[in-house]
Amino acid sequence: MIWRTLRRIMREPLGAIGLTLVTVVVLSAVFASLLTSYAPSKISPAERFASPSLLHLLGTDHLGRDLLTRVLYGGRVALLIALGATAVSLVVGVVLGLIAGYGPRWLDNVLLLIFDAVKSFPTVMLALTLVTLFGPSLYAVVLVVMLVNVPGYARIIRTQTLVLKSAEHVMAARSMGASAGRILRVHILPNIIGPILILISMDIPVVVAIEAGMSFLGLGVRPPTPSWGAILNDGFANIRDSYWIVIAGGLPIVLTTLGFTFFGETLRDLFDPRLKGRS
Amino acid sequence: MSILADTRVSRRSLLAGAGAFGLASMVNPKVSWSSDGPILKVRSYADIQTLDPCFRLAAPEGDITSVIFAGLVVTTPGDSWGWRPMAAETIKQLDPLTVAFQLRDNIGFTDGYGQMTAEDVKFSIERIADPANKSPYSGDWATLKEVEVKDKLSGLIHLKQAFAPLWTSTLPTPSGTILSKRAITELGGKMGVKPVAQSGPYILKEWLPKQRTVLVRNPDWKYEQGAFAEIHIHPIEDEKTAELGYEAGDLDYTWTAVSSISRLKQTPPPKTTVVEKPSLAFVWLGMNQDVAPFNNPNMRRAVQYAVDRKAVVDAAYFGAAATATGIIAPGLPGHREKNLFDFDPDRARDMIAKEGLAGATITLDILNKTERLTAAQVVQSNLQDVGLTVEIKQNDSGTFWTLGAKEGDYYKKLQMIISRFSMQPDPSWATAWFTRDQIGVWNWERFSSEEFDKLNAEGMVELDPAKRDVIYKKLQDLMEENGNYVFLTHEVTGIMNRDTLVAGLKPNGEPVFTDFKPA
Pick from A16, A3, A2: which is nearest to A266 by CA? Predict the structure, then answer.
């Protein structure tokens, strides 16, 4: 099944590019320690602002740290947050969406109100508030991502649940005495999770951008943890003298977001052709 | 038809004209104008949190209070430190313990608070000096006995002992500012960000937090008016951001990042003057001796050995600044030639192992500025090399400058900071913040030494430069021996301003707003 899906994706030009980029990013992050001999946080003042060379393929930053190494390890942070926070958001969103869609009307109204209220906060303001409350950290980034994503996922799940709630197979199960939990788990969830997974693959670039944006602003992971956003910030501060730092920080963000976007769009076109061409 | 004869204005030509004008403005920024005259747009490194000279927090507040409230004298711009009368018609030291002053006859307070009198001088000076008011700047008047009012406009400042910094770091600074006795009394003894009874050449027109402070000429000021009708002061904490603001045409004057000085000197923005000034400021790594693990003196000493100060300063300031040997800059009495404890990581590692503290995690609080973050990351790496984990916590200026205050509760967990103090041209201004009565005020390391306090008091009343030199060297030795401090640098100050502007700058590059003039 997986191989067949991958073959179908690779037949699509955008899908092939997307899958290749995603594979490269994931593998380079996972095997970062094998791909470089430098430590990501080891400073080397004597090698500050070294331009790209065979010794340092992407050059070094203002503290003499090898930028390729920081980009590779930064990929771990980006993917950890993108995949981890999105997975947690999915679980919470699915649970709340199912409750809203299948539960009593008043509970649906309350949950909808909460979803809309949370969704109405601009992402940057939300990030600033949370960082002020809890301080900049990996957990703060995860929390921001969750608060940004959960209402959207929950709303979609709720809508799908409302549609399936009155479907014949669900009515039949209910008439046979199936509990609400069993109906949600066995009869509704498997029918709505597919579209959500496609949606998630397209949300990952957004999460990568949120993490990079927060780290760029100094609200994300703390130094010296490598992060693409933090590399961008270092580069921004020294862009006149050492342009390669900005390139090293920006390139993986561009490639990753493009890769996941192409991958997600191809998945969507293959599994939900009705949505083909929509962004 | 000639071009001149065709005077029709089409929408396209209007847009083209506007575009060309905009482009020309970007390429050749000129002085902005208000309806009353030219506008000066400057950057300050911190927003105001109070305009009460008695409780000011950072130098930018002093820059503003010095022009909206008249002092007896004011610092003059130039390459050497000096002063000129401002509110005083005449002011003269009669003997080491007495200063006579005569106020100008027509300096008024705004908001209907009448004329400035000798009674206001007495009130303002004694207010800062009175320990009951808990002004962090009470040390500026440490030997004040009283201010005697002779008549409406004249009086005598009596000192208990001779006071060396009187004419350098007391009278010409905001600590010599005169406020309205009636206004401050009506306010309950303290002023916030809304100034009342202003009396200087400029008055505050508006303050938009985190955006700008606007000063306008004081129409009631009878003496030399400032050359600019309005001064817009934009608080931008990060110098690199300020540089971009300058290049975008939003600023006429800014300090640059030290790391940018060399590049800006070689390739300055169009029609820009770039200068480098020696700085008196001092930057240090501090450890709070009341909080673990730095309540252990060996731990403090280990950090002193662990930090490669040259690497820190080179990385943060691109080699443009030198490492400091203390808190007193070269050229002032008390400047030391060398440190007592310097980089020795093996020794640091041994000490940490002996104390069983390897693996300890320490939080390092810093201001969120590029240079401070870079310095912190080198410290983090140095300490990691000797077995300590450092978590860097960046703070905006509003938060940072209250971290160690006893009014809050963060001082109970504040472990390590990188901080920077501005400085006046007298060594007493460097050491005054590390006495016991400054604990929880500016002494965030909670350094406590009876001997230090005694010597510090002696330094202020000693007039012999040679003896002062010995005293202030010893004071820095005491600070370093106690282990709370790793002295990093005095920085240098990079400044750029439009060629259309003559910037009025103190020898250390701090602005005197009244002395900025169009070229």
Answer: A16
